[in-house]
Design brief:
alpha/beta, 5-stranded parallel sheet, Heat Shock Protein 90, Rossmann fold, 3 domains, 6-stranded mixed sheet, 15 strands, single chain, 33% helix
Length: 333
C-alpha cells in the first residue's frame, strides 16, 4: 500500500463503484502473480478549486501481457489466450466491467505491461476534496533516528517516506545481517522497524540477536515488528519473550504507524480513568480476545476491526459454542 502524503483526508465520489473497480483490479493482480508483489498506489496529480485529480495504480510482478494483446484484453469474455483461461480460470469479464464502470465516472482504464515481468493498471479520477485539519501526533519528538529492516525495496521506501514526514531520519537495511552490522558499528537508533518475513534470517531471529548482543543498558532498544497476520500464536509468544514493544499488521498505514510510535514512551505511564479517581496503565503487552462466530465473513470482519484498533491483540477463533468453551479453558482470555 503506497499512499501519497499529499492525499486529501476527505473525498466525495461514488464509493461503491470505486471499491468494485479496485477490488477487480487487485483480484486480477493477485490471481496472475505467483511470486513477487502486488502494489496499490494512490498519487495526487493536480489540485484545483477543492477538486483533486488522483491516479489509482495497481501494479503486479505477474505473468504480464504481450504488447500485441493489450488492446484485446479489455474486450468482454476475452483473456490473453486460451492457455491463460485454462490455467487461471475466469470469464474475461472483469476488465470489461471495470472499464464500463470507469466510463460512468468519466475515466478509463489504462495499462502498461511487459510479458513475463508484470503489469500496471491505472486510471485517473477528479473528485471533490477537503484536506480538513491536519492530524498532530504527540510524543514523537524523542524519535530522531530509526532503523528500517525489510528485504523489499518498495516497503523500505514507503516506510522511509512516512518517517521523513515527521523529520525522523532513517537508515535502511535489506536483511537482518545488515541491521546487526549497523548496530555493531556503534550507530545509535531510537527505534527499529523490523519486517518479519525475510530470507536467511527472519525478523524474530534478528530481534533475538539484537537482544542477546546489544542488551547492555537498562532501557531496551524499542522494536516494532511488521508482519502479515496478527493472529499467529507462535509469533505472538515470541514477541512477548523477546520484549517486542509493538506489532503492526502489513500493509502499514501512516496513522497506525504514528499511533504505535507515539505510545512507545507511554507503555508504563499512568493516566486518570474517565469519571473516577482510579488510574489505569496503557500497555502494549499482548492481550487475548476470544471471538465466537460460525459465519466466516463475520469472523473476518471482527478480526479486521480488532487488529486495526488493538495492534497488540491475539485473536482466538471459535466457530461453535463448544470450540469457544474449549478455547476459553485453553487460553484463558
Amino acid at each position: 500500500l503506497n499512499l501519497d502524503s499529499n492525499l486529501p483526508r476527505f473525498i466525495r465520489t461514488d464509493s461503491i463503484r470505486l471499491k468494485q473497480i479496485i477490488v477487480n483490479l487487485l483480484g486480477n493482480a493477485v490471481k496472475f502473480t505467483e511470486s513477487g508483489e502486488v502494489e496499490l498506489k494512490l498519487e495526487v496529480l493536480e489540485k484545483k478549486n477543492k477538486k483533486c485529480l488522483i491516479r489509482f495504480n495497481v501494479r503486479d510482478t505477474g505473468i504480464g501481457i504481450k504488447s500485441n494483446k493489450i488492446d484485446k484484453i479489455f474486450q468482454a469474455f476475452t483473456q490473453e489466450d486460451a492457455s491463460t483461461t485454462k490455467k487461471y480460470g475466469g470469464t474475461g469479464l472483469g476488465l470489461a466491467i471495470t472499464n464500463k464502470l470507469l466510463a460512468l465516472m468519466n475515466s478509463k482504464l489504462q495499462l502498461e505491461s511487459i510479458a513475463g515481468k508484470g503489469s500496471k493498471f491505472f486510471f485517473e479520477l477528479w473528485v471533490d476534496a477537503e484536506d480538513g485539519q491536519a492530524k498532530e501526533w504527540e510524543n514523537l519528538t524523542w524519535i530522531k533516528k530509526a532503523l528500517i529492516v525489510d528485504d523489499n525495496l518498495n516497503n523500505r521506501t514507503i516506510l522511509e517516506r512516512m518517517m521523513h514526514l515527521n523529520q525522523i531520519s532513517t537508515v535502511s537495511a535489506k536483511n537482518g545481517f545488515e541491521a546487526l552490522q549497523f548496530l555493531a558499528s556503534g550507530e545509535k537508533f531510537d527505534v527499529v522497524l523490523m519486517d518479519y518475513h525475510m530470507p536467511y534470517m527472519d525478523g524474530l531471529d534478528t530481534i533475538r540477536q539484537i537482544r542477546e548482543i546489544f542488551n547492555d543498558s537498562d532501557t531496551l532498544l524499542p522494536i516494532v515488528l511488521l508482519f502479515s497476520s496478527s493472529d499467529d500464536e507462535k509469533v505472538n509468544r515470541a514477541c512477548e519473550a523477546l520484549k517486542v514493544n509493538a506489532r503492526l499488521v502489513k500493509p502499514v498505514k501512516m496513522d497506525d504507524l504514528y499511533e504505535v510510535l507515539s505510545r512507545l514512551l507511554l507503555k508504563n505511564k499512568i493516566k486518570p480513568a474517565l469519571g473516577s479517581e482510579e488510574t489505569q496503565h496503557l500497555t502494549l503487552k499482548a492481550i487475548k480476545i476470544l471471538v465466537a462466530d460460525d459465519n466466516p465473513v463475520n469472523m473476518l470482519l471482527a478480526k479486521t476491526i480488532i487488529n486495526r484498533t488493538a495492534v497488540n491483540a491475539i485473536v482466538i477463533e471459535a466457530a461453535t459454542g463448544i470450540d469457544a468453551i474449549n478455547a476459553f479453558k485453553q487460553y484463558d482470555p
